[in-house]
Amino acid sequence: MKVILLQELKGKGGEGDVVDVAAGFANNYLFRQNIAIPATKGNLKQLEQRKHNIAKREENRVADATKMKETLDGALIKVVAQVGDEGQLFGSVTSQMIAEALKESTGIEVDKRRIELGQAIKTAGEHEVSISIYRTIKTTVKLRVVGSEDELVETVVEEDVEVVEETPEAPEAPEADAPAEETAE
Fold this sequence. Notes:
Blueprint: E1 2-5, E2 18-20, H1 23-30, E3 36-38, H2 41-72, E4 76-81, E5 88-93, H3 95-106, E6 115-116, E7 121-123, E8 125-134, E9 137-147, H4 148-158
């Protein structure tokens, strides 16, 4: 069944593309989620009229994706996880954890579904993670997985410690207004 995509569908195409998909997929998912419409003569005619606007939006998306790629390319991201004795993690680092760390360190919000983990990250240390930003635009970031104790040590070392010189205090002199002690004889 031929459909016209209203937004990007990973592996199939982008907005305005006419693609061939299974009828069940189109009826049960694409039409219900407003991701696509049927490729009828009327819809194809409307698509031709909207091609100019779609091309402008596509150009903006590619420019934004390229800018994001330049920002993220080779970035170092730290993820804090529970680490066992020999560097093994309790569980694994998820794409959700990586997305949150990206937002925290760079300020860029990346959808967790765009983060491509080849295999589960289950050890502490540095790993490379690929991020599919838009269609064929991809980048790689370095991920450093540390335990919570390691993180605390690193932040203490990294902080600028301000040294304040203390002046020696003079011995306190008795106050003049203080009443003198009376001695009873």
